[in-house]
């Protein structure tokens, strides 16, 4: 069954020449973003002010992102200066947050054919922005600053229509495509390199409290409108068809489709995509498996 | 089939010692909210300003709610002062609105395990806030102030992504969980103590005008993404599975699942939950009925 | 199967006496809108300021719409004056944009029984407003002003929770009812007089780049929550049931329902609705076809 | 010496037919203001929204004034809803504040030839608005709510460039013309029917604390840029020339001019102006006294 | 007596190579402004967004100025889009307004040694901006759109602390230096190439209505804090000392100083400054005349 | 002659027990400010949100001041986040700025009898806030970031009506009382412990460029409305009467009054005030000298 919008990039994906660690990678991506923004500012004067204020005037990706999120998520009662401060202090001081941001940027750039530049993702992708804000809320939650974490969740839900409980643990390299209506519960766990389309629910079982939300393995792809409920395991590399309702475990490298969901794909090649050209998981390979079920 | 996020509270639910009427109950809940906000303000200075402006500085629940809604729903062309005035005048003068607000707060506090305090619901739950604003819009609609009611509907739809026609009649003790994408049509009626998850549609039949939307009985539970269309009756205590499409009546105490929906549960114990410990309807009891249909 | 909210208007639909071209029609609709707004301002002083600023003070529909969109879509980093200028210059100079706006207003007024006036649609319908803003973004995209077009897309997605890629080609006379959660991909094409409910996805196939999104024929009706994926053709006058998942072509005048979708309707009368009384396609005629599949 | 802008009205001054008390007078003035605003809204669509939101939509002068002041004096950290509430509760519950507002409106309307309507004063005169906000701050001061009173003083000083200590006691029927730069100290007292031009200082003596600011009698006229320092008495009906520096008492019905000030006028006719046609004090009668001192 | 801040420019004043008319001159100045802004944006990233939004993104001086004024003078009840529209329509359609703007820019650039670039004046000089907004208000006044003109006056007085009645007629090439506290009455007339410092009052006489304010000739210089009252004539090329109080006519090419003012300068060379190097009136030549009067 | 508002504090001035350096002093003052704000928040719930957001939630005086200035001086085109960042980075990294802020707070607290707490000054004194913002602008100027420094000057002039050229050098322990209308030119120098009332001008001579503004010695007191023009020296401990016009040097410990100014005081006791109880210069001692000149 085809899931949407998740192909290989039409042109060779951008790669960092850096062999060094995360810092080098962050620096390279940030340099790309600034170069893209400068190019766009030159070609589109009407957008130049926006590009300077959100990207070009900043000295780091953390500052740019914190500025952008602060201005997106602020309200008349939660001021942009407060949020900016909160994001900047949290994000710039935590290397794991910064490397996750870079991995998410790469995920969008490589897996979403509509994503033509890093700066496009940074500026315009509500899924990307919601995830970055969630990571800060999650860190606050872990520090037992729960009221502040929940206030952030609320702002993310209002502004982006993405509702992720700050307790949820989310890996790196996440693509939250289109993102409107995504709901992820408190005890959900999402692995690395997962792609989640809009209207996806990782919901609870109805068990009071406790561990009651799905566990999503690395490299999983979840189609638009899929609903996964309860403390079930979606194995590594599995694919969940659009509109599916999943209430049980799904084995690794398997495809589940339908309402309620049925397993339709056999074991696939167990090769995790890593967002580098030539190694990317083919998010479309299970289309053929589902063709019998459709018109 | 498991529906999500609707279990019993892990700890004993808070109860009001008051034996008196609604006023006592409102006073008790408001005192709780203020105490919670003060505690959070003490522990989290970054949030204290927000908590004081939205809760602690106000002399009543009506004022706090009106302030919060006014600032959430205002825009550059619909000023916060106008909306604040409208909410305050309507809400503080109508005891039934105030008791409905209290019942909704209790519903979230008891039925949603992620809801750890009344103030969390008041501040952060877009479903709760959307319902409160709708109640005011509905009252305006009943007073034939339709253009203003429709303008409110539009603001609620923009800000919370919850689209409830001001003509719809909604009972008390409603939990609108996560809430993004909920659509409720003009002639819909929703009973008391109903729980509705996100992406739920109570839509029209296509009949021109007239009574064309669902009638939802007391204590009904509607799972995420369920679509109920037409002037159908969902009986008291019924449960609608996540992702279901319902086009016909569902008898009381029955469960309907699937697209299109099938009845899967027999008659259950006809005991309406009333959000007090020991009497709460078990929203999860129908999970077993659906296990055959899933992977 | 009933799809919702798309009947004939209960009262005779308003018609323009003008026999002339689009200009006459636009003038007539604009005159109606102003008259409605004046009537509402007289009856509801609390709303008068809003009605004057958004409608009555303006000399043309283009100005009113540009003002309204500029104030709806602005942010602290994309100022209302910039957006107003952009919308006004683009909209007022392009007769095809203006006639599309008029056709969309008519579509809402005629097909949606909850739409009681043109001004109600202009002011309050997020689907209508999202489409109008998209048309401007699409024109910018065609002029190769892509960064600006994508920034507009992002604002529309944030504010209205409607995510339409600026590359998508959308016809005239579109009703985007309720609209929350609608996603339309880059290479999608939507014909004239199409009605699309909320949560509808016109998504990609997973093919990298290229022509990968659905093609929707004239007069098609797509129910709430339907997901259509890939470069498939939905023929003229076809109907897609609520909650359906469509992965293959659907012939003209045919109905598809279910997840995955099945064809349930035979060929119907090939008469395209044109939003004038007596000629309107009956969006509800296929309800009977689906009754077997439901409870 | 000519003082400026304080002549008789060119046309017969408006009078209230009401013989009743302050309530009747307030009602009559409010009716005038609304009629003026409606007339202006009809003739100037671009201003209609502003006139409706600030005047026409309100049910009383207190509400209109509180709305206008709340929106003028708010900031990102002192919200309009808070200020609106504060002004409305204070102003509407205190008949003396309301009658003072009416008297000030009359003072501007009668004494300032540039003031062509009551609504012009209510909307546009920063001196009038600063005085009304001060009256509320003064009441808070008297209730020992000093931090809030001082915060209001600060906002008035920022927005209107008028700095009146909340402790200062100000009479009724005050015309604060142009108003920029007016400074009035904590222990100053200003009588009724006083006219004060811009840049006027009623400052302290340098004595530590205590009663250290001027006492201004009824019907006094103080020209632009005059500086009066210390606990001196300016007698009833006295006139202080523009640019004068006054450090000693000035007897009633006397004129003082120059830096330092000299008495130049003899005793004048001891007839207090009361802002009704034919009885108004002639604010220009002392011009002749000063003609020797000028070029 | 020295008046302040009005010397020759230290470096050769910029000249337009254009020999053509006003249009050429406007184009040349606008090109200079954009070049300055681009240079500053390159050197100061923190300011680049501001410079792009206010200057570089605009296609004409009228658009840039209208955008800047709209955003400076807007309030929560008078939206920036409304003001932008008003300024743009008025300014861009009236060549005399445009040439006056250019002349005022030149006046600041040449006469104020602290004015180092045209863009500095356009962006930062509240006197310049107040005058430009006044010119629009004056045109509205002349068109009998008085309520709107008075609302503009009020906004200018709030934001810039400059209070110019919209009826006042102001020439070209005006330098309103520092500007805070300037008050100019309804029937005042100010000639061309006049320099006015802060705190200057051109006030009324106290005559009821009628022609009651000063008439200021071409090339006059009025020092800080000077007060000129009544329908007096200040002759061409005259100079009024700082802090002076002027109540009678002042002959051309004469200097008046003191409170009350005395004539101290004899006839000077009757050569009007025209803001071109070598021909500029020496605003400081009368310093020597006053030296006897000072300490 | 009495100058106003500058006496000894009525109660013993607050002293720091710290014997250490500036850091200890800053810490002590900051602790006082927080304690005051907490006390006020407890007693006045309506102000608590404001006090938390501006003071109590911050971890240092630099953060509190930067937040407050950022929100006061921001506009729709110069965002609060940008200004906050700029102030915070500049202020927190420069000990001399921080010690100047503390000295200014002490100056207001000790010399102004209306200043009843440090927090009152920090929150409400536009003169204090204008000086702090100027110090940042001056530092930018010194770093040759002139366009940004001038933009700050412009915002300070708009918001506080205080116009200080960023080139001006200002000492520590400055009291800018009331502050409206103060103008200080580019080459002015102001010593330590200087008190300046509102409407004071330190203006230029008319010499083109160069060093053309006054030099004000330590401990000088300048009364309201005084105008000092040209590169003149006002000696240590001198006093300038309100409304004076000073065009020549004034010797140390001397008093100058009048327009034009005359020396009226003999040499006084050469004891500089240092804002500690018992050592404070008596700002009122020259009153007796001037009594002959007045009425």
- Point out poorly predicted stretches of chain A: 1-14, 270-295
Mean of residue pLDDT values of chain A: 86
| Bulk shape of chain A | globular
Q: Report the sheet with the most strands of chain A, covering strand number, pairing sense and barrel closure.
A: 6 strands, mixed
Level of helix content of chain A? Answer: 40-55%
Look at the helices and sheets of chain A and give the structural class. Answer: alpha/beta
Keywords (chains A, B, C, D, E, F): Acyltransferase, Amino-acid biosynthesis, Transferase
Pathway (chains A, B, C, D, E, F): Amino-acid biosynthesis; L-cysteine biosynthesis; L-cysteine from L-serine: step 1/2
Family (chains A, B, C, D, E, F): Belongs to the transferase hexapeptide repeat family.
GO molecular function, one term (chains A, B, C, D, E, F): serine O-acetyltransferase activity
Briefly characterize the structure.
Chain A is an alpha/beta fold and 295 residues long.
Textual characterization of the structure:
- Six copies of one chain form a homohexamer.
- The first copy, chain A, has nine helices and 15 strands.
- Chain A is an alpha/beta fold and 295 residues long.
- Chain A has two domains: 21-161, serine acetyltransferase, domain 1 (Orthogonal Bundle), CATH 1.10.3130; 168-294, UDP N-Acetylglucosamine Acyltransferase, domain 1 (3 Solenoid).
- Chain A has a six-stranded mixed β-sheet. Chain A has a five-stranded parallel β-sheet with strand order 1-4-7-10-13. In chain A, strands 2-5-8-11 form a four-stranded parallel β-sheet.
- The first copy, chain A, is globular, with a radius of gyration of 19 Å.
- The termini of chain A are close together.
- The interface between A and B is large, with 53 and 58 residues.
